[in-house]
Predict the 3D structure of the following.
Amino acid sequence: MFWQRLVSTFALIILLCSPLIAQTTEDQSPLNQQEREQKALEMKKELERKTFALLDEVISSAGALKLPENRALVLSSAADLLWTRDDKRARALFKEAINTLNSVSVPFDEKMKNEEAAAYWRFLQQRKEILQIVARHDADLALELLHDSRPQTLSKANAGRSFSRPEDDRDLEQSLAVQVATNDPKRAFQMAEENLSKGYSGQLLSLLTHINDKDSDLAARLVTEIIDKLQSENLATNQEAAFLAIQLLQIGMKHEGGGSVLLSSYQIGRKPFSLDERAVNDLLEMVTTAGLSETPNATLISMLPYLMPDIDKRLPERAQLLRRRIGEFTRNLDPEQRIFMENIELLRSGSIEAILQAAAKATGKARDTLYEQAAWKAFNNGDEAQAHQIINDNIRDSSSRDRILESLDRAALWNYVSNDKMDEVRRRLARLKSKDERAGVLAQLAFAAATRKDRKLSLELLDEARPLITMKPKNDMQLYTLLQVVRTYALVEPAHAFEMIESLVDEANVLLAAASVLSGFLLPKGVFRNGEMVLTPGYTQISMQFRPFGKELGALALLNFERTKNAADRFQRNETRIMARLFIAQGVLSEHLGSGVALYEGGVMVGY
């Protein structure tokens, strides 16, 4: 995946910055507001016209790609961009993309070889990515294409199988519903109902929280249907049902002393979701009854400790019996797991002093884990000095001690970055041993300064970061930092951005030429095939990483679209040129560009 990200980064960097190179000097006289708005509108219309023409070229060039999965990627990405302009053509392109992808579908067989299994899972990944794009526009079309692309299975499960086949498409159908929920919560609710009738899905609670963002009444109805289905199950033997019930309690029940512990990622950035009292009582009744049965499943017992404070409050008559059952389960665990299970409640709601007392009685890794948790609790309470003291006084292994202290320092640094305390940030930067990390912090601060139109500070920070970055990135951190530095230079000092781009494009072409020769020798198999770089799976994730840059890209393309297009064509490999052109279209037409348009006067961005 690193090589694919490397290509994507090189492509986007040059596309982001090259328009700045040939800034025009015509008509740089100051404009009044009405003239500015009119000029911006004209520029936007002309840019869109050129961009759709470029997109037509991208679609036409897809046929020249050797690999069907690369053609499917280009066609589906183009369809995504075309939807609001020509949904009929977009539908046809989505269908063509899926049909193209089907040509590399590998029938599942538990006896398949490693390479066949890898191809099978690559197909599933890309199929999922394309269907998720379709679902954002049309749920029914996504379901139709899902059924049309379902892979075959040649053999039934057997005890000696090497590779496990997905049970069905339930998780994928639910992930499609998550995409639908953003625009059509009622349709997403219908999809959730249909899927729930088939069983349980790992995506169900994510879908629930997305529906809740748009329609809390629909979310409450879905909760009722989930609980009704759970009540027909035996949670003592059905691990999926037990896990879902406890997850639902964790995300929907208000806990004393700080909220949910498990699966908080479901609610990050989401509208708060709460279960009503009846739902909480029904779920607690189910999970505690299952926990006290003769043969409760291990998943249920291992998760019950997270709920014990709430069980103490609501069902005190069962709490002691459940603690005894948890204790019986815990005694059969290895020592380290046992210490953790015994202290779940303590870590969740106990004081720092209580955690320290438990740590003093523990041994081995469990001891260090408890001391580390105590330190983080002190840090989160705002006492950084106590956190450091706990680690220095109690962690005996020097490498573990240094690792934890570095993590604490790093967290403190980012707290100061978030609070814009520049003096403290500069002082703490010196503590970071990694120059890549120092460069990353400086690059982020420089971009923040640029967005505040503090050009002087941004340049100072960039000049500090520049000696720390490498022009030949070898990992994701170096790639991202390089992208951030060039991106910020593009906004405040285009000449420097251009100097870096010249070097980067030449380096990219050399590296890609070498990589194609070494494919299968020093590089993992699958990076290149039939002389072409495999751009998938994972393209959606790569594209999403760069979407925050789309607004700047679209704005800068207003300045010199042809120069941007010519920059894309500097890439020597066909698939890289096509991908670069696709990035231009995505940057200009992305919803992130919105209605705002950048306008330049005298080579300086003056507004959106």
Q: What stands out?
A: The beta strands are 528-529, 532-533, 599-601, 604-607.
